[in-house]
């Protein structure tokens, strides 16, 4: 089910131009190699026309761990996403908790109010949405 939702979410973001055309990470048909070709082309054009070129690259440390649930969930409806999808994502992220085990000693469960699960197919889109 997550893969189907991910497919439709990607299409929705692209159809409604919510993702920049310059976004290469986590996009089908785009790779680091494609970005390198694009940048090389633009830099070559700038050099040949004696112009200027500027590149800005962001790599946010622990980006998936820092997605604040409350802010993300409040933003989703503003993008025009269907209510059922917003409710499903809310349900998935709500009431999550964690406990830590160290040398056999367990902590109590603690609520989680930030972060998207590692390996969750929707994590890249949820992280991206949190910055829109």
Task: Give a brief description.
By secondary structure, the protein is mainly alpha-helical. The protein has five helices and four strands. The strands form two sheets. A two-stranded antiparallel sheet has the order 1-4. The protein has a two-stranded antiparallel sheet with strand order 2-3.
Explained architecture:
By secondary structure, this protein is mainly α. It is built from 5 helices and 4 strands. Strand 2 (101-102) and strand 3 form a beta hairpin. The protein is globular, with a radius of gyration of 19 Å. The two termini are 25 Å apart. The mean pLDDT is 85.
Q: Radius of gyration over alpha carbons?
A: 19 Å
Overall mean pLDDT score? 85
For the largest beta-sheet, the strand count, sense and barrel status come to: 2 strands, antiparallel
How many strand segments? Answer: 4
Percentage of residues in DSSP E strands: 5-15%
N-C termini distance: 25 Å
Shape designation: globular
Spans of at least 5 consecutive residues with low confidence: none
Number of helices, where a helix is a run of at least 4 consecutive DSSP H or I residues: 5
Order of helices and strands: HHHHEEEEH
């Amino acid at each position: 089910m997550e893969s189907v939702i991910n497919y439709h979410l990607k299409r929705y973001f692209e159809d409604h131009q919510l993702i920049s055309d310059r976004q290469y990470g986590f996009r089908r048909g785009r790779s680091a190699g494609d970005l390198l070709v694009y940048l090389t082309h633009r830099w070559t054009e700038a050099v040949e026309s004696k112009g200027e070129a500027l590149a800005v690259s962001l790599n946010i440390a622990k980006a998936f761990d820092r997605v604040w649930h409350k802010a993300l969930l409040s933003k989703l409806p503003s993008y025009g996403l269907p209510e059922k999808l917003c409710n499903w994502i809310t349900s998935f992220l709500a009431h999550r908790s964690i406990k830590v085990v160290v040398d056999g000693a367990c902590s109590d469960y603690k609520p989680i109010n930030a972060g998207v699960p590692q390996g969750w197919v929707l994590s890249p889109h949820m992280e991206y949405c949190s910055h829109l």
